[in-house]
Amino acid sequence: MIRSELIQKIAEDSPHLFQRDVERIVNTIFEEIIEAMARGDRVELRGFGAFSVKKRDARAGRNPRTGESVSVDQKHVPFFKTGKLLRDRLNGTE
Question: Which residues are CB-contacts of 23 (< 8 A; sequence separation ≥ 6)?
């Protein structure tokens, strides 16, 4: 599902809301998650999962084409850990 499909689904399920308002709500939620992660905070959505940021140290990598050794700088990467409810639903145990 992409963002526009999510907005459309919520708008269909909530006929009392205008689509532009649903779009603003969805965009605000995503922006708040992004801003929290940019600050290094963890975002937890109970039953769904938790978003966090992990730090990857600098390391020596290898160029796959040439085999030449290259240095890879330190970086921060997003990480998602599923919640128990989501995991159980995906595995059909609920």
Answer: 7
| Residue pair 40/54 in contact by the 8 Å Cβ criterion | no
pLDDT interval class at 88 (50, 70, 90): very high
Counted residue by residue, the chain has a size of 94
As a 3-state breakdown, the chain gives helix, strand, coil percent values, each rounded to 5, of: 40, 30, 30
87/40 Cα distance (integer angstroms): 25
Give the number of C-alpha atoms closer than 13 A to the C-alpha of residue 9, restricted to the C-beta side: 7
Gap between the Cα atoms of 5 and 45, Å rounded: 20
Average pLDDT of the segment spanning 20-42: 96
